[in-house]
Amino acid sequence: MRNTLTVAGWEIKQLINKSYLLSLLLTPALILVFAVVPGLLGRLTAEQATRVLYVVDELGVFQDLSRELQGGNLTLRLYTGELTALENKVREDKEAAYVVLSPRTLATRQVLIKTGTEGIPDLIITKTALQRVLQRHELRGYGLTPETVSGLEQGYSVQTVSLAAAAEVSPMRKTVQGVFAAIMYLVVTTTGMLIMQSAITEKRDRLAEVLLSSVSAGTLMRGKMLGCFVPGVLQGIVWAGSAALFAYFYYDLAVWQYLLEPRVALLLFFLLAGYLFFAAVFISLGATMDDPMQASNLQGLVIMIPYLPILFIGPVTADPNGLLARVGSYFPPTASGVMLARLALAEHVILLDIVLSAVLLLATSALTIWVAGKIFQTGFLLYGKEATPREILRWLRTS
């Protein structure tokens, strides 16, 4: 155990360096920047690009449109002159645009806002206002009262509500725990690939003999799994914390309470069990490769194992306790991801499924770690070629 902790400590020192810490802090910030800034800049650019909208009104809706756009920074001007002169005027004014509202507009159901800019500003507010005003004008043409028109504009809210779910359960709980599970599952899979890359790098740098001269192959493998786990956990905490802070300051949503529920302990358990399974698979795969870019088709398929739960996302979303969702919970390569989704989406998960999935996943992880140790012991010293499936089977039989 002491040697395992020593290897883990050495692995942590190799991984947690200045570049790792820099990326750890910058990644959430960059995600936030790319998620928020483009929309803000696009909205600001659209508002600044078009300041005056000339309206050729043949329908008598100018006053209604003015009320819809009241309070914005777009100035509406009613135009009654020649259309050719207006087009030339707008063409010379980069901050102007014009729109023609005529009976032809209602017939073709097309509205063209022509601008003087070279680009096409995204006038979402103006477009929405025009849609409402024209729809209202058309409905009034059928002799409907203003109250009836107002009711038709509201439309209908159609939702699906499960009678099996508790009425007092907040939908926010599902969203928060689902996002948390997705972030941590991504961390688990990327950390497993990090272990594979670490094994490949040490093989390529001819450090295998040096390392195995000091500790056994099993100790080295377990130390690597433990050492890569710590930076992964740190990364997950920073990402989840950043998401919670973003929700609080940007949307004014306090999500911390949903991360302190007992159900989160089950989420963490299946994340840990999934990590053990994926880490064992990837470290054994790394021991059989010299370069991930030259991996065979079979090895490429193995790399896709963590993404198999995606196949069950539809059935789990439709019925978290349905037959296909339960099957995905019993299949070890998908058990971790499917159970995370079920625990996040369902109010009540069948207890037998939780216990059986946990037992099968832990047993499979233990078996995978044992097999990975056998492969790692021989494959880590193999240079210049990639191991074939037949050779790997021979290692397992003879060791």
Description:
There is one protein chain. The model has no long low-confidence stretch (mean pLDDT 78). This protein is mainly alpha-helical. It is built from 17 helices and four strands. A four-stranded mixed sheet has the order 2-1-3-4.
Range of helix content: 55-70%
The count of β-strands is 4
What oligomeric state do these chains adopt?
single chain
Unreliable spans are none
Strand percentage, roughly? under 5%
* Overall mean confidence score, pLDDT: 78
Side by side, the strands of the main sheet go 2-1-3-4
Gyration radius, in Å: 30 Å
| Distance between the first and last residues' Cα | 22 Å
In N-to-C order, the SSE pattern is HHEHEHEHEHHHHHHHHHHHH
Offer a concise description of the structure.
By secondary structure, the protein is mainly α.
